[in-house]
Design a protein that fits this description.
Elements: E1 14-19, H1 33-50, E2 62-72, E3 81-89, E4 95-104, E5 110-122, E6 127-128, H2 133-141
Antiparallel strand pairs: 1-3, 2-5, 3-4, 4-5, 5-6
């Protein structure tokens, strides 16, 4: 099965920096594949927080991840400074896609690209729900 390619071009909505820690390494002595997804989670939580939201409350409901794709392009190593950037695609009434880019902060080489497919979710009733207007307003004000 061919690997899904992630379009690297997107409008950045938020960026942060992170340093590769010992706990982030795998037995090959480079950034572990599962940590890349954790980094994407970190930048997503920071972006939501900047907008006074959280994954449990984006204006009356929570978020749930319905899928993820990651393209690993280069290795990252201990103490390497990385920049995580986030953007949006495919915003619908219930679901949207967050796009991520992980780059070396000094060389700007892309370490990984990713996307997470997110849905608005009513955790109390355990069912998908429409995106609240407060979240849609943030998306509308973002350049997509």
């Amino acid at each position: 099965m061919p690997q899904t390619k992630i379009d690297p071009l997107f409008e950045a909505l938020f960026s942060c920096n992170i340093q590769v820690r010992v706990a982030d390494l795998n037995y090959g002595n480079h950034l572990s594949n599962d940590r890349v997804l954790s980094y994407f989670h970190e930048v997503r939580v920071l972006w939501l927080s900047q907008n006074n939201l959280s994954e449990l409350d984006v204006g009356g409901c929570g978020l749930i991840m319905t899928g993820a794709n990651v393209e690993y392009l280069q290795q990252a190593h201990l103490h390497q400074q990385l920049t995580l950037t986030l953007g949006l695609r495919e915003v619908g009434k219930v679901r949207f896609t967050i796009i991520y880019q992980l780059c070396d902060s000094q060389t700007n080489h892309v370490i990984a690209l990713g996307e997470t497919h997110m849905g608005c979710f009513d955790y109390q009733n355990q069912k998908p729900t429409r995106a609240p207007q407060s979240l849609l307003d943030i998306f509308t004000h973002a350049k997509m």
